[in-house]
Write a sequence for this structure.
């Protein structure tokens, strides 16, 4: 590492999943559009071995310096001694931007303890890390916070009892499920649905989807109705063998977030993104257990083992209006934190890093300037990312009205 330089431009990695869009990420990040449009679902920025960021213009570090290798070679230099020790010499967070055009899988993430046990078990079975039937890619939990960049819809935890009851009453095809929720036993209820023989799933959902299609054609459904999303999933498809994940669209909370609003998904909380663009920050993990609405591997037993069968009252975080210069989004864990920075032209903000920070210039243009070395600065345009080393004092100066997002590890409280 060159001691005098504390900030570097970095580039992330596009991930091409079939639920992604074709234009949002390339336009936002000012990337060359592909010759043949392909699905760009996620953009990862961080040090996950499956897609580590590359340092740009970093001749001093080697032409193809990637963040995973750099941290591995010098964890204390890139993270600081405290974070390196606490998080096992890895950057504890991963920053993502998502473009959700089609529904993502019904999913849940494990606790750290569950991930450690299950990762070890799969290792002991001799399963290679890239084996297709491998479920645990690492030994970490994956709590995640999402901040909407557009109108955003998602499924987020089981509905509270009264709302779930109302749903079961409202749709006649669910009436015979009422007795299974009579004691408000979420576990028994969800296990019953997820364990139903396929013909019974079809008997519930085919007539329901047929009715929902008629309502959609008649214009009586909106994005606040589960039927909007169940019919979207089956748009242009025959109703033959219905994915049981469709039940979750009705029994989970359907949440709308407007741009700037955020919601946190903890371990054990079942969820699925439906549509929109967002920023996600999460623990550095790829442990996802899936239960439907996907072509990826589904393991219902494993999903059920890791779900917390409790009702959820969605808690969205709404930034104050008008927005202050800095919004610190609250997260109930110590692996990561994220702030939104609003700066009008020529205004500046001083910062002092604790561990490695990742800064994304979302709109406008900024210059980052070290307080200790005039040669140490970076110009950051909209769509560009920088990383700043630990224990650095610097200023962000807006060259045009700017919005930035900053990901970091929070300082310990004591
Ligand atoms: Zn998730």
């Amino acid at each position: 590492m060159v001691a005098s330089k504390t900030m570097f431009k970095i580039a992330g990695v596009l991930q091409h999943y079939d639920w992604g869009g074709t234009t949002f990420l390339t336009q936002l990040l000012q990337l060359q559009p592909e010759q043949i449009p392909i699905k760009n679902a996620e953009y990862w920025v961080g040090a996950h071995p499956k897609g580590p960021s590359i340092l740009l213009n970093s001749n001093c570090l080697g032409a193809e310096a990637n963040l995973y290798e750099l941290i591995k070679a010098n964890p204390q230099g890139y993270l600081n001694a405290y974070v390196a020790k606490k998080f096992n010499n890895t950057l504890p967070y991963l920053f993502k931007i998502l473009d959700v055009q089609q529904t993502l899988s019904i999913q849940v993430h494990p606790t750290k303890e569950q991930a450690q046990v299950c990762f070890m078990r799969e290792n002991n079975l001799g399963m290679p890390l890239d084996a297709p039937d491998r479920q645990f890619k690492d030994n970490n939990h994956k709590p995640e916070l999402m901040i909407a960049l557009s109108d955003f819809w998602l499924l987020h935890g089981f509905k509270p009892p009264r709302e779930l009851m109302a749903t079961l009453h409202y749709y006649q095809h669910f009436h015979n499920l009422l007795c299974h929720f009579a004691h408000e036993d979420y576990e028994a209820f969800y296990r019953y649905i997820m364990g139903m023989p396929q013909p019974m799933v079809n008997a519930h959902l085919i007539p329901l989807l047929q009715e929902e299609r008629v309502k959609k054609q008649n214009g009586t459904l909106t994005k606040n109705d589960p039927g909007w999303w169940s019919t979207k999933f089956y748009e242009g498809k025959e109703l033959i063998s219905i994915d049981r994940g469709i039940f979750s669209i009705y029994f989970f909370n359907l949440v709308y977030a407007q741009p700037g609003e955020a919601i946190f998904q903890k371990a054990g909380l079942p969820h699925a993104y439906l549509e929109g663009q967002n920023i996600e920050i999460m623990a550095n993990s790829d442990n996802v257990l899936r239960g439907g609405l996907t072509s990826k591997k589904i393991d219902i037993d494993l999903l059920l083992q890791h779900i917390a069968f409790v009702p959820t009252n969605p808690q969205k975080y709404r930034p104050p209006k008008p927005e202050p210069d800095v919004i610190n989004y609250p997260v109930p864990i110590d692996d990561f934190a994220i702030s939104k920075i609003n700066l009008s032209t020529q205004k500046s903000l001083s910062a002092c890093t604790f561990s490695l920070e990742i800064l994304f210039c979302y709109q406008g243009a900024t210059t980052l300037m070290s307080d200790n070395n005039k040669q140490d600065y970076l110009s950051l345009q909209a769509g560009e990312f920088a990383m700043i080393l630990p224990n650095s004092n610097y200023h962000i100066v807006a060259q045009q009205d700017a919005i930035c997002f900053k990901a970091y590890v929070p300082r310990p409280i004591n």
Observations:
- The first helix runs from residue 24 to 28.
- DSSP finds eleven helices and 20 strands in the chain.
